[in-house]
Amino acid sequence: MFKTLLLAAASLAALSASMPAHAEDLKEFRIGILGGENEADRLRSFQCMTDKLPEVLGVEKVSLFPAADYDGVIQGLLGGTLDYAELGASGYAKIYLENKDAVEPILTTVQTDGSKGYHSVMVARADSDIKTLADMKGKKLGFADPDSTSGYLIPSVTLPADIGAPVDQFFASTGFGGGHEQLVLEVLKGTFDAGTTWASGVGDFKDGYTSGNLRKMVDKGVLKMDDLVELWQSPLIPNGPIVVRTSMDADMKTKFKDFMVALPESDPACFSAIQGGDYKGYTEVNPSFYDAIIAARKAQIGS
Predict the structure, then answer these.
(1) pLDDT given at position 144
(2) Which residues belong to the signal peptide in this entry (predicted)?
(3) Is residue 281 domain-shared with residue 184, that is, in the same domain?
(4) Measured between alpha carbons, how far is residue 243 from residues 35, 36, 93, 246, 302 in Å?
(5) Residue 276 DSSP label
(6) Are 205 and 225 part of one and the same domain?
C-alpha cells in the first residue's frame, strides 16, 4: 500500500498540468502532506483519513500526496490539484500573498492548555559546550525549511532582538536541514551546532513537550530528549491552519469540516496521529487569524 502511495507522491507535479482546478463532481479527494518527516511515517499517520473519508464525503477514493518539502504542497494548493492540507502559518501566508482566494483556512488546533499557538525552539546537543543562546555566537545554525514558520520565518524575524545582531552576523553560518525531523537528526550528527524546530511549549521539555516535532520523534523512538538542550524559545506563534480548496463544493466543505471537528472524540487515535501529539481539539479560524504572520512574511520578502 505504501509503495502505491509513494508512486502517487511522485505524480504530484504532473497533476498540476493534467487535472482541473474546479471539479464540480469530485470523485477523488486529494490530501497534501508537508515534507519534513520520514515519508513512510507521514503516510502511516494519514492512513486513517483514507479509510474514513470516502464514505463521509461520498467520493470514490482519498489519495495522499506527501511532498518532498513544504513548497510541494503549497504549489499543489495554488494549482488546485490538492483539496486539503494542514499548513504552518508561514506556508499559508505564502499562498495568501500569491493568491488569497486559492484556499480557505477553516480550523486550527487547540493546545491542551487551551492556547491556539506553539513555539519555535532552538536545540543543541546536550553533550556539547553550548548551553545558552549566547554560546551560539560564531557557531552553525540550522533551519528546518524555507517555508516553515517555526523552522525559519519566526526565528529569522525574532532572533536578532535576542542576540543583539543580524542573524548572518551573529552565527558563523546558517543552512537548512530538509525538514524538522531531519534537522534535529543533523544537529545530533553535528552538521549544525543547533537548529530550530517546533513544539507546543506546553508540558516539559524532557518529554518533548505535549506535541510538536520533538514529541513525534520521541514517540517514534528516534529521539531521546536527554540528548538535547533547549537554548531559545520564540514568542507564541499562531497554530497553522487546516485549509481546503476554495473552489470545492460548499456541501463537501461542510461535510469535511464537520468530520474534522468531531474527530478528536470519534477517533482519538486518528486525531493524534495526524496532529502529532496531544491536543484539546479544533477551533474555527479565518484569514485574519494569520494577519501578523502574513505581514511578517511580506516584510521578509521585501527585505
Answers:
(1) 97
(2) 1-23
(3) no
(4) 16, 19, 12, 9, 26
(5) T
(6) yes
